[in-house]
Q: What sequence folds into this?
C-alpha cells in the first residue's frame, strides 16, 4: 500500500529565504508525482507535475526533483515571499490511477 | 478557459439527510475524481469516473455514491449523513487518451457541514 510522507509538517521562514520541502513515498512504482498548493479552505492549485521518467521540473521560483528509486521528491522555493504562505501537498499516482496524497507542509513566510 | 467548477460552495444538512454535490470538469477532460478532506485527516480518495463509468472507489461505505453524465460532469451523493461526513469535498478532472500526462486539476470544493 502506497504511503506518502511530508517533512517538515510546518515551516516558518523569513521573507527572501530559499527553502526545501520534502516528500517521500514507499512504493517506487509510480506514474507521476504532483505538487500542489492549498490556501485555507480552498481547493488545490497544481504547481508542478513530474512524470516517472523525469528527474525535475521548474516553474518560475519553483523547482521539483524526483528520485524514484529512493522514493523521494523535493520542492525547492527560491526567494520566498509572504504570498507563498500556504499548505504544500505532494501526491503520487500509481497503477490504480488515483493520487495518494501526503500529509502536507504548512508554510508561513514572515514579512 | 474555465477551470473545474463545483456547486454548491457550502451546504448544511442534518444527520440522516442526503447531500448532492456537483462537478463540471474542464472542457475536454473525460475523467473526474472525488476526494474528501476532513479536518485533520488529509485528502482521501473517494471515487474515479471515466467515460461515464466508475473505475475505482476508495475505502468509503456504499452510502457514498455518484455518477458521471454524458457531458462528463459528475455528481456525488452522500446518503444517511453522519456528523463525520462534514468535510471539504474536492473534485478534480484530467484528460485521458494519448499524450495525457495524468495531471489533475482541482475545483474549489464544496464544504459540507452535517449538524
A:
Amino acid at each position: 500500500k502506497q504511503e506518502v510522507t511530508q517533512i517538515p509538517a510546518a515551516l516558518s521562514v523569513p521573507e527572501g529565504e530559499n527553502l526545501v520541502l520534502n516528500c517521500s513515498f514507499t512504493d517506487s512504482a509510480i506514474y507521476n508525482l504532483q505538487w500542489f498548493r492549498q490556501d485555507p479552505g480552498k481547493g488545490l492549485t497544481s504547481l508542478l507535475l513530474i512524470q516517472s521518467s523525469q528527474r525535475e521540473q521548474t516553474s518560475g521560483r519553483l523547482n521539483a526533483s524526483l528520485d524514484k528509486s529512493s522514493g523521494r521528491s523535493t520542492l525547492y522555493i527560491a526567494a520566498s515571499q509572504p504570498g507563498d504562505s500556504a499548505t504544500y501537498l505532494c501526491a503520487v499516482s500509481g497503477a490504480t490511477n488515483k493520487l495518494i496524497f501526503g500529509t502536507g507542509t504548512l508554510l508561513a513566510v514572515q514579512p | 478557459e474555465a477551470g473545474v467548477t463545483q456547486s454548491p460552495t457550502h451546504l448544511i444538512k442534518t444527520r440522516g439527510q442526503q447531500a448532492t454535490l456537483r462537478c463540471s470538469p474542464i472542457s475536454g477532460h473525460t475523467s473526474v475524481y472525488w476526494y474528501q478532506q476532513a479536518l485533520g485527516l488529509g485528502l482521501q480518495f473517494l471515487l474515479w469516473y471515466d467515460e461515464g463509468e466508475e473505475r475505482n472507489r476508495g475505502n468509503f461505505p456504499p452510502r457514498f455514491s455518484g455518477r458521471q453524465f454524458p457531458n462528463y460532469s459528475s455528481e456525488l451523493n452522500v446518503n444517511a449523513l453522519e456528523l463525520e461526513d462534514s468535510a471539504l469535498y474536492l473534485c478534480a478532472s484530467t484528460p485521458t487518451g494519448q499524450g495525457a500526462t495524468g495531471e489533475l486539476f482541482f475545483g474549489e470544493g464544496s464544504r459540507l457541514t452535517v449538524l
In short: Chain A has a mean pLDDT of 94. Chain A touches chain B at residues 31-32, 34, 36, 41-46, 49, 51, 89, 91, 93, 96-104 (CB under 8 Å). Residues 66 and 104 of chain A are 17 Å apart (CA to CA). DSSP finds no helices and eleven strands in chain A.
